[in-house]
Amino acid sequence: MPAPARLTPLPRAFYDRDTVAVARALLGQWLVHRGDGTTRVGRIVEVEAYLGPTDLAAHTSKGRTARTEAMFGPPGHAYVYLIYGMHHCMNVVTGAEGSGTAVLLRALEPVGELPFASNGPGRLCKAMGIDRRHYGHDLCSADLFIAAAPAVDAADIVVRPRIGVDYAGEWALKPLRFYVAGSPFISRR
């Protein structure tokens, strides 16, 4: 699938709304990272929604900390963190400032050449060249952003519980993982 000729960031208003609505709307959009003379592009095919301090699977469930500060910031920024001491993961901050809500980007369909597999949040960040330097990055900028692409039809969106949050009790079972039906690029079926 070729990238569109003109890639421009989505407006902040796209992110400044209900987190589940943003999660669903992110499917099919283009994640773009320009840097070091290259442009990396991937089509978002899998995401998970995190609903703020009451969501026991969300990092913000422990309150406002130095680590989670970006999640409490304005919508349309990146919350990038390191897991297992080696893998970066990227969330898109959503909702009103102070809400602590975000959407984890779980998998991309490669568009053009990506140097690594991009199925799974750690692989996605590695393939896109995203790391902690992008913590709090404004996604309305020209170097790391999400660009508009044709929306995925609601009938083509699969809804499942999130992955790897068993510690969150009943929140582990909430249907907050969304992916494009039939995509061979998702992290787990």
Automatic annotation (TrEMBL):
GO MF term set: alkylbase DNA N-glycosylase activity; DNA binding
Enzyme class: hydrolase
The keyword DNA damage is assigned to this record: yes
CDD domains per the UniProt record, alphabetical: AAG
UniProt xrefs under InterPro entries: Formyl_transferase-like_C_sf, MPG, MPG_sf
Gene Ontology BP term (one): base-excision repair
Top-rank taxon: Bacteria
Signal peptide stretch: none
UniProt cross-references to Pfam families, sorted A to Z: Pur_DNA_glyco
Alphabetized UniProt keyword annotations: DNA damage, DNA repair, Hydrolase
EC number(s) on file: 3.2.2.-
Cross-referenced PANTHER family: DNA-3-METHYLADENINE GLYCOSYLASE
Protein family according to the UniProt entry: Belongs to the DNA glycosylase MPG family.
Name by which UniProt lists this protein: Putative 3-methyladenine DNA glycosylase
Organism this protein belongs to: Denitratimonas tolerans
Lineage, uppermost ranks: Bacteria, Pseudomonadati, Pseudomonadota, Gammaproteobacteria, Lysobacterales
